[in-house]
Amino acid sequence: MGQTAWGWLIAIYLFLGGLGAGSFLMAAFFELSGWRYRSNFCPVALVGATVSGPLVALGSALLIFDLGAGRMQPWRIFYMFTHFSSVMTWGIWILTIFIPLALVYGFLELMESEAFLKGFVSARAPWLLRNARTYRRWVAAVGGVFAVATAVYTGVLISDVGPAIPLWSQPVLPFVRIPMLPILFLISAVSTGMGLTFDISATIADPEIQRRFRIMDLSHIFLIGLENIAIGLLFISALSAGGAAAESAKLVLYGPLAVVFWIGVVLVGLVFPFVVHAYAIGRGQHSLTSGVGSGVGIVIAGLLLRYMIVYAGIPAAL
How far apart are the first and last CA of the chain? Predict the structure, then answer.
């Protein structure tokens, strides 16, 4: 098995960061495109806006806990705000801006759907209620930029360790020296965000929503295709590089992590959702089981993808 310096806590942090960012992006897309207003109740916007801040905040807490200094001497975290040559510092600033924006977005969505909260705001700050749509659109637009940055950053963080662990810094192509993991994590973040907010939450709250947004099936198939290409290029690049990178790829493809990859990531998170959404396009509708099942598979695969990447890392010196 590969290195274990980073374990489950980091894998969960990477997963929650991507899931929270992707959920925010889904809510923001529905808001800015106007899809949110096709019905009186939009579960995609409500769930995406309200879960994104807590998910990313929880993931950040796990990262701090995993860092020994963060757990034993938490005041040292403040020093990380000033080291601008460090990827960690970029991430802290991104998270420091994104998490409050996401929490504000969640409050603005809850204010519309919860009668008690709506009455409370109406009595104390009626101007906020009158201009709620304008505020939501601004927060969605600005927060969307930082949501993309959060999703990409989780990949940048791990690829920055790449010189020591070659799998994590494999380029998109040998002649394109851009690391693949930030791109793969961004695709996975959008996919898992769509799985949580649309396939699971919206389908349970309103089973007819699948019929009103048929383009979501095509969007899933497009994202699954992109994720397939990104994962394929990552392992082709690793095998071509040889050394520790190739050993990492072998761990995943036919070593101790093969079950996680072929069953947890490929079968559950790519093949099953692809078949479900292709069938739904042909049939013209989803069942509750297929819609929710696809979302659950995509979200689980998002976690296992990051677990697999973290645990497959083999230091270059080995």
Answer: 12
What amino acid occupies position 307?
Y
pLDDT, tens digit, 9 for 90 and up, residues 214-263:
888 899 999 999 999 999 999 999 999 888 899 999 999 999 999 999 99
| Rounded Cα distance, 309 and 12, in Å | 12
Tens-digit pLDDT profile for residues 23-56: 999 999 999 999 998 888 899 999 999 999 999 9
**The two structure tokens encoding residue 58:** 């929880």
Structure tokens given for 19: 């899931």
Burial of 40: CB neighbours in 10 Å, binned 0-12, 13-18, 19+: exposed
Which residues 6+ apart lie within 8 Å of 306 measured at CB? Answer: 11, 12, 14, 15, 18, 185, 188
For the entire predicted model, the pTM comes to 0.91
Residues pairing with 171 in the sheet? 179
For residues 52 and 74, what is the distance between their CA atoms, to the nearest angstrom?
A: 24
Q: Cα angle vertex 317, ends 8, 244, to 5°?
A: 70
